[in-house]
Each structure stands twice: as C-alpha cells, then as structure tokens.
Amino acid sequence: GGVGVEVKYTEGEYPYGKQEQRRMFSDASPYHHVHARSGMYVVGSIPTLRTERFKQVWRNHLLGEAMVQRGELARFTSVTIFPAGNEHFVRVMKEYPLLLRPEMRARVVAQTFDEFLEVLGSAGGSDRVAPWLAYLRRRYAHP
Q1: Fewer beta carbons within 10 angstroms: which end of the chain, N or C?
Q2: Is position 117 within any domain?
Q3: Which structural domain range is residue 43 located in?
Q4: How far from the centroid of its chain's Cα atoms is residue 46's Cα?
C-alpha cells in the first residue's frame, strides 16, 4: 500500500482557476472517472466534493486512488497534516470522511502538527533526532 502525506497551511478555500474548474467539473475528466471507479464515496457526493471547500483534499485523495486503479498500489491512505489553529482544515477534515462510505473512512487520516509531533516523539530514535524534533515543535506546534 501507499501513504500520501499532504501538509496544509492554507486557512481557507480558494477559487478555481478557469482550466482547473473545467477539469474538475467535467464528467469526462480523469477526476470524475477515478471517483466513479473507486467506489469509495457515498452516492451523490461528487457535487459537494467539487466545491472549493473540499477540492484540495478530494483531489489529493484521488491522486492516490488513481495509483491503486493503475495497479501501482494495493491500497492508499491519504494523510493531511495541518496546524491545530487552522480552523478551516479542522472543519474540512471532520467533514470530508463523512463523504466516504463508512468502510472507506479509515483511508483518510487527519493529524494536527501537535498530534504528528507527539507520535514522532514517542517513536524514539537516536539522540540526533531530539534537536530536530525540538525545532519542529517550536516552529509548528500550536501554542
């Protein structure tokens, strides 16, 4: 299997570019075909997934799913890491899994930087890791 990690700093949705919008909204697009073949999403979810609110997360997830469909991976999990204070992604990452069929929701993981750094810290490692982890905590952890 594979894991795709996306780190998000954007604090809101942003408008589509013209070409991007044509691609994302076309029923002939690769996005639409990967979505339809995946069987991951609840029926009728595509109009919601195409919104500016979900387009970033949906598109990233579809990239991994396309690899599964081409036989490059047996399974794909999409991980999104974002600052705890990023209210936009806190909300989006609670809502996005609800657009997936219940048995597919484990293929999406949302982690704040704080949670991610906690996992890294508990993994142990050499003494060389400690300064790097301290830097990441200072730089990215929510105060």
Answers
A1: C
A2: no
A3: 2-112
A4: 16
